[in-house]
Amino acid sequence: RPVAPAYRNPPPTNARNRGGPLGLLNLAGQLPMLLVRSSLMLAHALAFGCATITFLGDRLLPRAIMRGLRGIMRAVLGPSQEPDPTAQASMFIQQFREKYGERHPPFVPLGVKQASVQARAEYRFLFVYLHSSEHQDTYSFCRNVLCSPELIDLLSQQFICWGGDVRRSDAYTLSTSLGATTFPFTALLSLGPDNKVSLVSAAQGCAVLQPGLLHAVLTTAMADHGALLVAQRADVQEREVNRRLVDEQNAEYEASLEADRVRDLQRQQERQRQEEERRAQEEAEARMRSEQEAAEQRRREQAAAIVRRREEKRAVLPPVPPPGSASPGSPPPILVRVRLPDGSNAQRSFPPGSTLGTVYDFVDSLDSTNYWKYNLVSSYPRRVYGHDSFGLALDALGLGTQVALFVQPEDEDEAS
Question: Which member of 149, 189, 226, 384 has the greatest number of CB atoms within 10 A?
Answer without folding.
Answer: 189
